[in-house]
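Course assignment 3, question 2. Fill in each field.
Student: A.L.
Task: Predict the tertiary structure for the chain below.
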Amino acid sequence: MEGTLDYVRGSPSRGGICDIETGRTLGKWIPLKVWRRTDPLRTAKIVAMSQPYNRVFNFSAGPCTLPVEVLEETRDDLMNYKGTGMSVMEMSHRSKAYEAIIAEAESDLRSLMAVPDNYKILFLQGGASTQFATIPMSYLPAGKQADYVVTGAWGKKAVESAKIYGSANVVFDAKADNYNIVPNLAALNYTPDSAYVHFTTNETIQGVQFKSDPTLPGTLICDMSSDILSRPVDVSKYAMIYAGAQKNMGPAGATVVIIRDDLLARGPEGLAPMFDYKVHAENGSMYNTPACWSIYVCGLVYKYMLRNGGLTAMQGRCQAKADVLYNAIDNSGGFFKGHAKADCRSTMNVTFTLPDEELTKIFVKETEAAGLDGLKGHRSVGGCRASIYNAFPMEGCEALAAAMRDFSAKHG
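Answer field:
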């Protein structure tokens, strides 16, 4: 059957393609006409059940879907990592085995992002939200002002934390438009000699995204939590990049900070060690016990990405997945409406609304039953949100688009 277009393949060893009524595995190869049901929701369920281990399509905003081969590797080494006789979750972070794990993770991330030599890579804890406070504690001295660009909920939270420690000037806030746009960063009026400029590349709740790296004078600090590793980045344009791991890199627990040496040196004396980037850099991210398991899985994800074409290939895959969903929105005759303006639509978080709340509830219920999980939107935007981070499969986007077309035809 291989090589024909009349059959699709399931993998019985990983769950296979199953009949959704009986749960019976349909076999290694099944007729395409069985797979392409006239009911797209039934099709979606069959496609979802064809995923390895009968995994659903996880559209939730985080933690993210991880590559199956990465999960399989963690499973295989769970009880006895590489002959050490213990799990990574059990081993000392001072052991040679774990020191090798964190060193490889750092090296692979440096290769993946082409991080210059004059930057330190830190694996910290506390999420990006802790950096909201640590950054102004470290780099917003008395008498200075920091500039913030607010394009959504996470940028707003960053400002709220900064104002506790010093003067934070909001140079742009898209609140009046319910955060559906991003500005031209080069066109904004910044504070002369500002301590730093802070912005968020991708807002998960509103689904807006900056598409390129800005060229700005001064110290540029960026929260890339939800789209890091989804495209090539010119790290040299930033004094600091930080990101929680749980969107595109691995499980929750680790936070990556990429910081230029000159900014690192500017940190003040007298900070509590856990909030001092210099302390973490001097101790190789092991001032305290790091998030060992999360860093280990991140390292496997970095290797997976390096094997599969790096960030340029990832950018192409992410854009192709997003295009499938935005085309479904744009071709629905107005039944589905995208929240973000077309020029700043996120490739990570596709946000859209339906004509009313009742239809939204029905759509979410029906798609969840079909194996399309986590589509309910955030209360501040409403509607639906399809989060399609790096490892999310194209098949899930195609299944959702088909379900959207069917639903709008029935209810439009």
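Instructor remarks: The first strand starts at residue 7 and ends at 9. Confidence is low (pLDDT under 50) at residues 1-37.
Grade: pending
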